[in-house]
Write a structure and sequence with these properties.
two-stranded antiparallel ribbon; Farnesyl Diphosphate Synthase; mainly alpha; single chain; 379 residues
Length: 379
């Protein structure tokens, strides 16, 4: 048993303030009783693991700051690892039973990896806030009292890289069979690489004059769906020894869940509450991103109507009045109704696929509850 297993054994003390909010976070995310116990052990493990790493940059405890940042998240991926694991089990999970060590470690690694990706994403998007606080590229210079944009971006990139490597360290020290560990690490590498490609595709679409729905779907699949939902579901199933047929089905379900998550993200960007989401409203418009709303609205408007609105995309100084008019137009021409019908249809297809799985009923219901949480989420 390696260093990470020893770290896991040392995590008997109660988690600090963030972990104590586990019941609230689980309820807010709509997670079923199947995943209620995931957040606390994962939080404990992450705190102890990161505390064992000396990563001081001047007076900044990078590992400690990263731990606090990860623990402000929803722990969606850690929960999906547990759900994927139980979907591949022949018998139902007993409520209150201990979460297997490898499921805890894998969930911790994917939460750390996700947070690292968010740090880099905020640099690319020039986002001012994340999870209710200043984004890393803005917070780090403030910590050292230096107003330097390049310094902030550079340090945030380095911090994100540390998150990647520490996540990989956790994943290389699992107790699973070597073949399963190798399969899992290949899956992580593929999923994160796909996310990187998806970001590049999105950036190129932002610079392009137009984008098709097919282009946007490809971005959603690569950037979000594979690593956010397919990866954790498959990771849990692999740790449980799932056969290839179940792995293939979970990959497809995860892709649909991830695309739904991204579609709801698009709606929250226009209709959400910044105090609830922790992100400013209208970012996609200001950054000129080609979202599904962009494509559907372009097709619904006349050239003259579109010409006026098109000028707002990619303009940082979009006003609240312009965003309000954009929302009104989206509703007036039926784009919002059509968008929500698309979400409903995809959710129905995903639900039917989940219900057809030959897995324990509690595990299937847990995943279905998760689907409902994605469609109905507010953050």
């Amino acid at each position: 048993m390696g260093e990470n297993a020893q770290v896991l054994a040392q995590t008997e003390a109660p988690a600090a303030a963030h972990a104590s909010r586990s019941d609230h976070v689980a309820a807010a995310s709509g997670l079923s009783g199947l995943a209620d116990g995931v957040r606390e052990p994962v939080a404990r493990y992450l705190r102890t693991f990161l505390a064992s790493h000396d990563a001081m940059a001047g007076d900044i405890d990078v590992a400690g700051e990263l731990a606090e940042f990860v623990l402000r998240g929803k722990f969606m991926r850690a929960a999906l690892v547990a759900v994927g694991y139980h979907l591949a089990q022949p018998h139902p999970h007993r409520r209150g039973a201990a979460i297997p060590d490898d499921v805890v470690r894998c969930g911790a690694a994917l939460e750390l990896l996700h947070s690292a990706l968010l740090i880099h994403d905020d640099v690319i998007d020039r986002s001012p806030t994340r999870r209710g606080e200043a984004a890393w590229h803005l917070a780090l210079p403030q910590m050292v009292g230096v107003a330097d944009e390049h310094l902030g971006a550079s340090m945030a990139i380095c911090a994100g890289n540390l998150g990647y490597f520490w996540a990989q360290e956790i994943l290389t020290d699992l107790d699973a069979a070597p073949k399963a560990t190798a399969r899992l690490n290949r899956l992580v590498a593929f999923s994160v690489a796909s996310a990187g490609v998806g970001v590049m595709q999105e950036l190129l679409l932002t610079a392009a004059s137009d984008a098709s729905e097919r282009d946007i779907d490809r971005v959603y699949t690569n950037k979000t769906a594979l690593y956010s939902c397919s990866l954790p579901l498959l990771a849990g199933a692999i740790l449980a020894g799932a056969d290839q047929r179940l792995q293939d089905r979970l990959q497809n379900i995860g892709r649909d869940l991830g695309c739904l998550f991204q579609l709801i993200d698009d709606e929250l960007d226009l209709y959400g509450d910044a105090e609830v989401t922790g992100k400013p409203v209208g970012t996609d418009t200001r950054e000129g991103r080609k979202t599904m709303f962009y494509s559907l609205l372009r097709d619904a408007l006349s050239d003259d109507e579109w010409a006026e609105i098109a000028e707002w995309y990619g303009t940082e100084r979009v006003t609240e009045e312009q965003l309000a008019l954009l929302r009104h137009t989206i509703e007036r021409v039926g784009v919002l109704a059509g968008f929500r019908e698309r979400v409903r249809q995809l959710a129905d297809e995903c639900r039917a696929e989940i219900r057809s799985l030959r897995s324990p009923r509690a595990a299937r219901e847990g995943l279905e509850t998760f689907l409902d949480a994605i469609v109905g989420r507010h953050r």
